[in-house]
Design goal:
The complex is a heterodimer. Chain A is mainly α. Chain A has helices at about 15-20, 65-75, 90-100, 115-120, 125-130, 145-155, 170-185, 190-200, 205-215, 215-235, 240-255, 270-275, 280-300, 300-330, 330-350, 355-370, 370-385, 395-400, 405-410, 415-425, 435-445, 450-475, 495-515, 515-530, 545-550, 565-575, 580-585, 595-600, 605-620, 625-635, 635-665, and strands at about 1-5, 40, 50, 80-85, 105-110, 120-125, 135-140, 260, 485-490. Chain A folds into three domains: about 1-155, 3-Layer(aba) Sandwich (Rossmann fold), CATH 3.40.50.300; about 170-260, Helix Hairpins (Orthogonal Bundle); about 285-665, no CATH class. Helix content of chain A is about 65%, strand content about 5%. The chains are: A mainly alpha, B alpha+beta. The complex binds guanosine-5'-diphosphate and magnesium ion.
Chain lengths: ~675, ~80
């Protein structure tokens, strides 16, 4: 049995999903966390639960909302689980009415009762169930309270098909629905009442569907008729007329089943907002938080931890493996492959796990607390100036962790132009896989100003993104007004468990990648460095790797790093950014990170090292990001463009920095 | 007294009288959030340099741009 989980954004759908299916999907306190459907299996191992993006109505404005309508129109749904936020019951019931019209057995999960009672709202589940004619189960999705009962009710069947005519829309519309039923007679299986009302509301997905069933001309004629009737009889538009009918019904339902008391106490959220979205303090507070996150990751906490891990891996672990290999009498080839290839390549990446986890922890904290939406509000003015809107800043912030979910998050941006622009620019945000490279280079060349130098790289990434946004939005992506309406959810105290889950969920990808992709890549790179045109076990400079790297190396002469080593690592960097580190560890095979840093000074000057870091920041989206850009834009042209412009900008900037620096006498 | 949301002072409340001058998409989105003619709103904060404003209605907070906020007429309460 397929059960669809549907509800307003940020009402706890994914939390409930995780509880009911025992899986873990991405939860966060802002609208638009879930942007595509996720399927989970109930704990009874039989029924499937489908988590969907949050929607306010079935008539979509943005791409993620369209996912739900598309789902209802194309896939088989047996039952629906509609989750309601009890503290926003009015708004939530609007969607419920549309779902009941869809005509499938539905059950309501009444969530956020704790929030509601703090606001003085009490919803009576029994009365609500009587008025709507469907089961209502109170739950606390966050802790799992009530979830077993809910699961039992929904999987055990016996849920009545709801009364699809809960709202009576007046004779004109009811007659029109009847007429559509005649037109559709025997041609399709969806509830005609639902199709008709969605069509009247202006749902484009439903309109397209109906075009395909009865033809464009006939449908348009039919639609025009009812529009005219409502216009002349009531002096209002069809959409608004439907809205008002529903609203009246909702008011009636609420009067019957919810009690509201007016509390004079200001909610805590508003007190916090008085500070963090303060006119004067808003921006400085945001920058301060970013600075703290940054210093903890790179300096105060992350750096010593990574250092410790490095000593552990290159010391006891490497020598342990070495003695084990000698003990089993491994050949020289195996010896070299494991120690010089795998330990150097994979270990060199794993060293940075602590720093990456700290970064992810902070990103999760931003997401779960509710601050993310405030960032969008605070940044909107700046983003507007460059042709975007504040919401585009959320994908960019997520992009600091990993560009792939960042690009996916752009789905919540309503206007296609702004969404495309955000997709194209998110790769400029310095993701966590680029972090090891900076850590390595600042350790070698900028010991005194470590954090400052890395900060400058991150800021440069943002600055380039904003400038390019301005350039693109006034040239190739002109037109279309931008839209900015954002819901600011109440702050919620993040729970430690949820935070850890979410940090682990993001960070495990990094570890997994090290164990698979980087592992295989390290073996491959090591083989390329071991073999050469003249045979096996050649000197490094005669290896295939040197040949390949040397082929493109002259291109980088003007930007400061004409060495085959740099060339080779940049090629592998397209596969995954952390592969750059693996490659360098293998090429300059040295016992530990400290001696690698010593060795690097033979090949780089501080200036060329900086130029190299900037180049890596910008030069190309990694393979996974490129695939996501293609998937999200659906266009080869834009995908190629995203790679092309990045290469050009990276080259120009590195050139300016390197040559400019030389002119200033910084070598 | 009839004023525009964008012209309310921080903490002042009003009831929406007229919203149809705003951009169609913005109006649709506000309607989704349950904000339309007749809703009671309260201006919570204003971002600097002509940035967006934060408005509270029925216990939920929403950010909209100033240029939209000055299209919405309210009756001051
Ligand atoms: N106070 C409270 N918070 C909840 C409850 N259920 C979920 N949350 C929080 O609400 C936020 C949104 O949850 P999420 O599952 O991502 O909602 P979705 O957007 O509907 O999928 C998260 O911060 C949850 O921790 C609840 O019953 N009470
Ligand atoms: Mg979700």
């Amino acid at each position: 049995m397929d059960i669809a989980l549907i509800g307003n954004p940020n009402t706890g759908k994914t939390s409930l999903f995780n509880n009911l299916t025992g899986s873990y999907e991405y939860v966060g306190n802002w609208s638009g966390v879930t942007v595509e459907k996720k399927i989970g299996i109930f704990k009874n191992n039989k029924d499937r639960l489908i988590d969907l993006p949050g929607i306010y109505t079935l008539n979509p404005l943005s791409k993620d909302e369209g996912v739900v309508t598309q789902f209802l129109l194309t896939e088989k749904v047996d039952k629906m689980l509609n989750i309601l936020d009890a503290s926003q019951i009015e708004r939530n019931l609007y969607l419920t009415i549309q779902l009941l019209e869809y005509g499938k057995p539905t059950i309501i999960g009444l969530n956020m009762m704790d929030v509601a009672s703090k606001r003085g709202i009490h919803v009576d589940p029994v009365k609500l169930s009587q008025t709507l004619g469907i089961p209502v189960a109170p739950v606390v999705a966050r802790t799992g309270k009530g979830c077993t009962d809910l699961a039992a009710t929904i999987t055990e069947g016996g849920i009545p098909t709801p009364n699809a005519s809960l709202v009576h829309y007046g004779t004109e519309i009811e007659e029109a629905i009847g007429k559509l039923a005649e037109l559709l007679e025997g041609k399709q299986n969806y509830s005609v009442r639902w199709l008709a009302l969605q069509l009247f509301e202006g749902n484009q997905y439903v309109k397209q569907y109906l075009y395909s069933v009865i033809g464009e001309e006939r449908l348009n004629l039919f639609l025009q008729q009812i529009k005219n009737t409502i216009n002349t009889n009531y002096q209002t538009s069809l959409e608004l007329f439907i809205f008002q009918k529903r609203k009246a019904k909702i008011d009636w339902i609420i009067a019957d089943s919810a009690i509201k008391r007016n509390l004079t106490k200001t909610p805590l959220s508003e007190k916090i907002d008085a500070i963090v979205t303060n006119k004067i303090l808003g921006l400085p507070i945001f920058f301060l938080l970013m600075y703290l996150m940054f210093m903890l990751t790179f300096d105060w906490l992350g750096f010593p931890l990574s250092d410790y891990l490095d000593r552990l891996i290159t010391g006891p672990i490497a020598s342990g493996i070495e003695s084990l290999l000698s003990y089993v009498g491994a050949s020289d080839f195996i010896h070299a492959l494991i120690l010089d290839g795998i330990v150097a390549g994979v270990g060199g990446v794993l060293v940075f796990v602590p720093q990456i986890f700290i970064l992810f922890f902070f990103i999760s904290l931003l997401e779960d607390s509710g601050y993310m939406a405030r960032v969008a509000l605070v940044m909107d003015r700046l983003m507007e100036a460059v042709g975007l809107n504040g919401k585009a800043f959320i994908p960019m912030m997520i992009g600091f962790g990993c560009n792939v979910p960042g690009i996916m998050a752009a789905r919540t941006i309503e206007t296609p132009k702004e969404r495309l622009l955000t997709i194209l620019l998110t790769p400029l945000m310095s993701c966590s896989a680029r972090l090891p490279i900076y850590a390595l280079f600042v350790g070698a060349f900028f010991v005194q100003q470590k954090a400052l130098i890395v900060l400058s790289i991150y800021v440069l990434g943002i600055a380039v993104a904003l400038i390019l946004a301005k350039v693109f939005s006034t040239t190739i992506l002109k037109g279309e007004t931008s839209l900015f309406v954002i819901e600011l959810p109440p702050y919620r105290l993040p729970q430690f468990r949820a935070l850890w889950r979410s940090t682990w969920d993001k960070g495990k990808g990094f570890i997994k990648k090290a164990g698979t992709f980087i592992f295989a890549g390290s073996v491959f790179i090591w083989l390329l460095s071991y073999a050469g045109p003249s045979g096996m076990n050649v000197a490094l400079d005669d290896s295939y790797l040197a040949v390949i790297g040397g082929f493109i190396a002259p291109l980088f002469e003007p930007i400061g790093f004409n060495s085959w080593q740099a060339g080779a690592s940049l090629i592998t960097g397209f596969l995954a950014k952390e592969a750059i580190i693996s490659t360098m560890n293998i090429i300059y095979f040295v016992p530990d990170e400290a001696s690698l840093q010593g060795l690097l000074s033979n090949y780089f000057t501080p200036l060329s090292a900086y130029s190299f870091m900037i180049f890596i920041l910008l030069y190309i989206p990694c393979l996974a990001t490129t695939a996501t850009i293609y998937k999200e834009t659906g266009s080869k042209r834009w995908t190629v463009f995203s790679i092309g412009y990045a290469l050009i900008i990276a080259y120009i900037l590195s050139f300016v920095i390197y040559q400019g620096g030389k002119l200033l006498g910084l070598v | 007294m009839i004023v525009l949301i964008g012209k309310l002072k921080k903490g002042e409340k009003g009831r929406i009288l007229h919203i149809s001058n705003t951009d169609l998409l913005v109006r649709r989105r506000l309607l989704d959030l349950g904000i339309t003619e007749g809703s009671e709103v309260c201006l919570k904060c204003v971002m600097p340099f002509g940035g967006p404003v934060m408005v509270e209605s029925c216990g939920q907070c929403i950010g909209i741009r100033r240029k939209e906020a000055i299209q919405i007429e309210v009756e001051k309460l």
